[in-house]
Amino acid sequence: MNLNLKVWRQKNETSEGEMKSYVAKDVSPDMSFLEMLDVVNEELIMKGEDPIAFDSDCREGICGTCSMVVNGVPHGPQRGTTVCQLHMRHFKDGDSIAIEPWRAKPFPILKDLITNRQAFDRILQAGGYISVNTGNVGDANALPIAKDKADQAMDAAACIGCGACVAACKNASAMLFVSAKVGHLGFLPQGQPERDRRVWRMISQMDKEGFGNCTNTYACESVCPKRISAMFISRMNRDYAMAVAKGECNNL
Amino acid sequence: MKLDAKIPGGPLESKWSRYKEECKLVNPANKRKFSVIVVGTGLAGASAAATLGEMGYNVICFCYQDSARRAHSIAAQGGINAAKNYPSDGDSVHRLFYDTIKGGDFRAREANVHRLAEVSNNVIDQCVAQGVPFAREYGGLLTNRSFGGTQVSRTFYARGQTGQQLLLGAYQALSRQVALGKVKVFSRTEMLDLVVVDGYAKGIVVRDMVTGKISSYAADAVVLATGGYGNTFFLSTNARGCNAMAVWRSYKRGAGFANPCYTQIHPTCIPVSGDHQSKLTLMSESLRNDGRVWVPMKKGDKRPPNQIPENERDYYLETRYPSFGNLAPRDVTSRAAKLVCDAGRGVGATGLGVYLDFSEAIGRLGRRTIEEKYGNLFEMYERITGEDAYEVPMRIFPAIHYTMGGLWVDYNLMSTIPGLFVLGEANFSDHGANRLGASALMQGLSDGYFVLPTTIGNYFGSSKKFVPSTDAPEFKEAEERVIGRLNKLMSIKGSRTPTSFHRELGKLLWDNCGMARSEQSLKTAIKKIQVIRDEFWKNLKLVGATDELNQTLEYANRVSDYMEFAELLCKDALERRESCGGHFRVEYQTEDNEAKRDDENFAHVAVWEYKGEGKEPVRNVEPLNYEVVKMTQRSYK
């Protein structure tokens, strides 16, 4: 099949960008979306033109590197799928496809479809961990954890930190990302001692980075490639309220 | 090249505890005067950087990804081994040690492997303390599953995302140290050279992948945790960005390269679908707990799998290896798949595939149980192939997955360059000629959390402290060298892309130095590699400039290393005139096509020494002395 692509091209962080048109020829339905772009890029290089810069690494949906908006939807039309796992069998000959980077102020565009997502790292650094040094911890089975709690923690921990939730949100809110980590550690007994401090610090950092607030549209949940539930946001709000009520903000 | 493994004396079981009791220490006030460079933020790198930071050292850490959390350890699916013996099925440190030595076809160093087995239990404790959500029983205790090459259940797992959860644990520990100011992380920064001053590793040269700026960093020691070289083969299960630059360029600065021919071909990958293919995707080995591998009895049987009756199917692993069945180790399973496909009984459009069938397990356990255990893997399979593996069997085929070879290290994990430490897949030490499933995660975290933090103190405590200025001539020479290479790549202005060269090289290697190797195929490959390399340097086409974000240039720079490294890989395979583990020479096989080792002549580590551009490298040898284990023919029958 042949496809008409409209792709965001931007030379660097400070330059202006624009949509440019390309034709992807002889696309096989077995190709992944990124392999289709690889083929377009090979042609561009042969023509001496700058290939379309985009992020990808594992190409099996787990590293969270790939990040592009396909026809207005982060990671494209297939639910629960990163764009690297989206295959061309979901498109048909003659389709027009618009490809853009994540758009959110805290994720500045570095080139074409590549953005800087270090704001997520800084949110994690603010408290997304259990403060335990290496060595001399107890035996792993000394602390039984109910299976449903462990399973819920795992549901939240499945977040790959790609940022699609932010890209989909009209407020560029990072609440789904933050709540996934708060939820993961909050379900576990090991996470309890720092529970108040963690949620307060991570949300403070999130605000500082310029991410917006949640207005319950569930756009984040619907595009999340790991189907992280927005229920974790409600849980985080409760934790946050508790932390504020307990005066956590005064301790920091 | 002097190869002193520095294995501590005394009985095997007490070497590591004795080492810890006797090694030099650095007092807490002095630790903050030492700085360490860590390259790579996978399981080994992130755990090492975090632990060194906790201990008080100043750490600077580098990764090519946009965040430390994305290193390729994240893609490990199945699990992590430990000798906890929670299921009470007879496991022990000794048994894990023995299985690993045997799995590696008796080509690993006893003392290192025993230490790995000892430390494995601490790794699980540590991860649980960090909040890694391992799978649990209803009673709240941890559960285990079994993996290839073992007869006990010792594998801990977090659904099909164990690597992700362990890496996030290490990344979170790392993030905590970043917040405390003990670790500084530079992402989108690639190491291009190692700097050696007066014989000691003292720094690195890096390229900022956003601005293209070349700069240098100096420290008391350098730690490489940069993964394997599987991407030399073009198609592998590695991430797109995985590369061999750090280890290869360190080799060219004097670090010995051990056993490059030990490459692991993983039996359960999704088969290639066409020329556009950019990578191969693994289906976790854990699937072989419940999936049954088969091909049609008849050659060229094109019927859909569900229409082939039971008595016309060949469950070849179950018949060939009755005691291990579908859980035979990876090298053995891969070769068995090659044999049936070579015999014309392969399945799928290309004939390069075998079935992995879950219908029996779904009948026995119910679809829900299978979904709970492997749901995400079935989904991944559906995304890629468009097929529903609950209804039709998966098609799988072997692919390059892991590399057991790597930079040579002694018991301290230090290379032949003092002050250069190498961890995880990047070193050669623990898996011999074949790695067992769920042992890579175990090794990465053992090296990073427990081994290096001890041994690096011993190094600092026993050598003179000095950190050169990055204005020193050694740094300037290295910077000029890498800038010269980048400019040279840009100036060729030929007519072929880096991908086209890489694909050609990869196919040549897969055909001649893949699952089966012969003297003739290897000699052919070596000759052709030289031809491709010559053309690469005459006919490469790049666009853009060096001082900007330029993915084609990054890639070409990595491919330029593969062009050199591939030759060493083939040379090593040529010189090792025996079959062992992942290295299968067709000239050396038993009557029933199993690998035939030659312990008399090859029970050693081959360590290659760089002698300069255009000069033949020298093959040095570290003999493997087995004090406890008796070498036997490895049988899984």
C-alpha Rg of chain A (nearest Å): 20 Å
Q: Helix proportion of residues of chain A, in percent?
A: 25-40%
Number of domains of chain A: 2
User: Any idea what the CATH superfamily of the largest domain in chain A is called?
Assistant: Alpha-helical ferredoxin
Helices and strands of chain A, in order, run as EEHEEEEEHHHHHHH
How would a textbook summarize the main sheet of chain A? Answer: 5 strands, mixed
CATH domain fold name of the largest domain in chain A: Fumarate Reductase Iron-sulfur Protein, Chain B, domain 2
Distance between the termini of chain A: 59 Å
CATH class of the domain at 266-400 in chain B: Alpha Beta
**Annotation, overall tally of beta strands of chain A:** 7
By CATH, the architecture of the largest domain in chain A is named: Orthogonal Bundle
Sheet with most strands: strand arrangement of chain A: 2-1-5-3-4
Number of helices of chain B: 17
Biggest interface, chains and residues, is: A-B, 80 and 82 residues
